Amino acid sequence: MKKIYLVGLGPGGREQMTRQAYEALAEADVLCGYTGYVALVAEEFPEKETYTTPMTQELDRCRWALETAQKGKTVAMLCSGDAGVYGMAGPILQLAKGMEGIEIQVVPGVTAALSGAAVLGAPLMHDFCVISLSDLLTPWEQIETRLRCAAGGDFSIALYNPGSKKRAGHLCRACEILLETKSPETVCGLVQNIGRQGQRHRLLTLAELKETEVDMFTTVFIGASTTRRIDGRMVTPRGYENKR
Amino acid sequence: MKKIYLVGLGPGGREQMTRQAYEALAEADVLCGYTGYVALVAEEFPEKETYTTPMTQELDRCRWALETAQKGKTVAMLCSGDAGVYGMAGPILQLAKGMEGIEIQVVPGVTAALSGAAVLGAPLMHDFCVISLSDLLTPWEQIETRLRCAAGGDFSIALYNPGSKKRAGHLCRACEILLETKSPETVCGLVQNIGRQGQRHRLLTLAELKETEVDMFTTVFIGASTTRRIDGRMVTPRGYENKR
Predict the structure, then answer these.
(1) Model confidence over B169-178: pLDDT tens digits?
(2) Which of A19, A127, A241 sits opposite B131 (nearest CB)?
(3) Cβ atoms of residues A10 and A195 within 8 Å
(4) Is the pTM above the cut of 0.80?
(5) Which long-range contacts (CB under 8 A, 24 or more apart) does B205-209 make?
(6) d(Cα B61, Cα A173) in Å, to the nearest integer?
(7) Distances (CA, A) of B118 to A192, A229, B19, B180, B231
(8) What is the pLDDT of residue B243?
(9) Is B108 in contact with A115 (Cβ distance < 8 A)?
């Protein structure tokens, strides 16, 4: 059977990968992905063929993976975090539509919402939303609508792609929208380089977050109205205290 | 240093755990958790002390973990999925408030939204919400508000705790709320016993989901308006096709 694994690596190296993900990489003939992600694991598999493309070449990479699988090779397509969250699982399944004889298996991984939350404490203990601030593939108006709805539902929020040189000002604008209904004192958190060298985090208020610049290696967490700062951690209560 | 690890096991056994999670279990003196979760890993560590409590005794378990850590033992508190998503990371951090000399480390894992999505295809490829339908700790009115906001933002939605004997009718009511604004043809998916013996899944429409009874081992996925059924998989496009 011709096979493609869509492998979620988790945030960084081997430690944060599941055994299932590791075994998919070990089984594959070719490791394929964005240059930086392949580099994260290539030293574990120095003998493997690799195929890497830069950041914006996702569809080319998917087509290459499908063509290579059709030639009979087992391909592991590497994604940081989870392959199904802003990863390559969707594009591959869309491009493979109607192709016969290729098995596509998604191997999940720890996405940045979870790995970043673990660094901060427990900001996503109750209902939460994950929203990307990148408008490369999504109209900005839709992003604004989702931010307003996330605030309206008092969800905890994890923001992906909160900033880059091309998207300066997106996080500030997002905070302005959230501040239409949320308190400026809302507990927020930033985690940079999760699970990698140079990991850093800090807690701050939503008002402070609005004035903060972040890079593309940062995940942003915005609390619900119930979220608290406890001994330096960001914690959203589940509600046990109401039950007592 | 006295230490508690909050360990997310992922959906099932060893295969879906990260190496970091496995090493936390290996390092711990005591494995502590809900009886069923401890059973999932206890055979890997037959020599370890274990402390188990039934499902509704979460706070007792957290207090026991803190007391045991204070006595100098390293405790691993086991959670299915991710420790920070409806898990024990929050209650432990709340109960540990002001305690000195105990290090609490959250080790993230693959939560059911991610592991279930991988089974179905790629339903969470774009912005999504995670909502629990359990009203044990959350007023039902708040759950309804969040469902309406999730529908208003056209998020993909993962529903946790969609049903149980005590909560018969919750999923039906949730579907009614979503159907106020979402199409009855919205692509939905169910995954039961994710990553465990007896794993099953199916795709269905939101109208069909409304008439479906599910158990507490099921995770429910509700698509965005863009979500499609592709060769038997549930896929939410990221938007690459708009760019072309």
Answers:
(1) 999 999 999 9
(2) A127
(3) yes
(4) yes
(5) B206/B175, B206/B178, B206/B179, B206/B182, B207/B179, B209/B171, B209/B175
(6) 43
(7) 26, 33, 20, 28, 15
(8) 65
(9) yes
Tokens for B35, please give them.
């009886």
Cβ neighbours of B181 (radius 10 Å): 11
Rounded Cα–Cα distance for residues B186 and B179 (Å): 9
Residue among B118, B124, B133 at smallest CA distance from B11: B118
User: Contact, A129 vs A150, CB < 8 A?
Assistant: yes
Question: What is the structure's pLDDT at A243?
Answer: 65
Task: Tell me how close the Cα of B104 comes to any Cα of chain A, in angstroms.
Answer: 9
ipTM of this model?
0.96
φ, ψ (nearest 5 deg) of residue B86: 55, 30
C-alpha span between A221 and A223 (Å, rounded): 6
In tens, the pLDDT along A40-51 reads 888 889 899 999
Q: What is the DSSP string of A15-40?
A: GGSBHHHHHHHHH-SEEEEEHHHHHH
Model confidence at A244: pLDDT above 60: no
| CA A102/CA B72 separation, integer angstroms | 53
Contacts of A84 in chain B (CB under 8 A): 114, 117-118, 122-125
The identity of residue A38, as a single letter, is: V
Number of H helices, E strands in chain A: 9, 13
Res. A115: pLDDT tops 90: yes
- Reduced to 3 states (helix: H, G, I; strand: E, B; else coil), residue A61 is helix
DSSP conformational letter for B9? -
CB contact under 8 A, A91 and B149: no
Question: What letter represents residue A85's amino acid?
Answer: V
Work out the minimum CA distance from A207 to partner chain B, whole angstroms: 23
* Calpha distance A156→A139 (Å, rounded): 23
Report the DSSP beta bridge partners of residue A34: A53
In chain B, residues with a C-beta closer than 8 Å to the C-beta of A242 are 137
Query: Locate tokens 């998503």: which residue?
Result: B85
**Inter-chain CB proximity B231 and A153 less than 8 Å:** no
3 state SS of B30: strand
Name the token pair of A54: 């830069």
Nearest to A122 among B90, B149, B233 (CB): B90
Q: Are A154 and A222 in contact (CB under 8 A)?
A: no
Q: pLDDT by residue (tens digit) across A152-198?
A: 999 999 999 998 777 779 999 999 999 999 999 999 999 999 999 99
A-chain residues within 8 Å CB-CB of B108? 16, 110, 114-115, 117-118
According to DSSP, the β-strands at B128-132 and B156-160 are parallel
The C-alpha atoms of residue A126 and residue A235 are separated, in whole angstroms, by 10
Nearest to B127 among A17, A20, A129 (CB): A129
CA separation for the pair A215, A171 (Å, rounded): 10
